[in-house]
Design brief:
With about 70 residues, the chain is of the alpha+beta class. The protein is about 20% helix and about 25% strand. The protein has 2 helices and 4 strands, in the order E-H-E-H-E-E. It has a 4-stranded antiparallel sheet with strand order 1-2-3-4. Strand 3 and strand 4 form a beta hairpin.
Amino acid sequence: SGILVVSVFEGSPAKEAGVLVGDLITGVDDWQPTSGDPVEAYVERIRGPVGSSVILSLTSPYGQERQVASC
């Protein structure tokens, strides 16, 4: 389960971290979502406090798993 990335804004922390359209966000820091978690749960954890960084667990459309740090 996860959230599909449908757009990445130029100049955004996600773009700078290497998040790509088509990636599936499967985790944020040590949080592993379940299929019943609402989108808002992801957004809250991804945004975090101002100035904080998060580690995103991603799966590409080709099944490659990776982690990126976003500030």
